[in-house]
Amino acid sequence: QVYLVESGGGLVQPGGSLSLSCAASGTIFSINAMGWYRQAPGKERELVGSITGGGATNYADSVKGRGTISRDNAENTVYLQMNDLKPEDTAVYYCNAEVRVSAWYTGAQLYWGQGTQVTVSA
Questions:
Q1: CA-to-CA distance for 15 and 29, rounded, in angstroms?
Q2: CA 111 – CA 122 distance, rounded (Å)
Q3: CA 10 to CA 75: how far, in whole Å?
Q4: How many whole angstroms separate alpha carbon 121 and alpha carbon 79?
Q5: Which of 4, 28, 76, 104 has the greatest number of beta carbons closer than 10 A?
Q6: What does the DSSP assignment read for 3-29?
Q7: Angstrom distance (rounded) from CA 48 to CA 68
Q8: Tally: H helices and E strands in the chain
Q9: 64 CB-contact burial (10 Å; exposed 0-12 / middle 13-18 / buried 19+)
Q10: DSSP state letter for 103
């Protein structure tokens, strides 16, 4: 089994910053891409950003210039730093990871964390 646990959510004032982390544990041989998604009430889950095993990043237009994704491969952890937070950033933030569980099987399986609530409000 593979487990992903997010941390760092909470209440942030508009214009403030947040830092989220997500650590993967369990039966892990290697991790390919990792990413952050968010889901606001009544809306579909949407991509915030992703990062490949080689370090290439991709961001949603709504967070470009405000968000930064990084990873620590030794710790199987992905981070999300966001600045200048806006009320529309309020959502449950989820991380995911494409995980190889065996050295002999190259196929990767997608795992999701349980989510962490981020609320941007004065």
A1: 39
A2: 34
A3: 23
A4: 22
A5: 4
A6: EEEEE--EEE-TT--EEEEEEEEES-S
A7: 10
A8: 0, 11
A9: exposed
A10: S
Rounded CA separation 114/6 (Å): 7
Q: Which residue has the tokens 């981020």?
A: 118
In contact, 79 and 70? CB cutoff 8 Å: yes
CA distance 87 to 18: 13
Give pLDDT, residue 3.
Answer: 97
pLDDT digits (tens, 9 = 90+) for 61-73: 999 999 999 999 9
pLDDT in tens, 76-91: 999 999 999 999 999 9
CB 50 within 8 A of CB 69: yes
Amino acid letter at 121?
A: S
Q: Name the token pair of 35.
A: 């990413």
Two tokens, residue 87: 């009320």
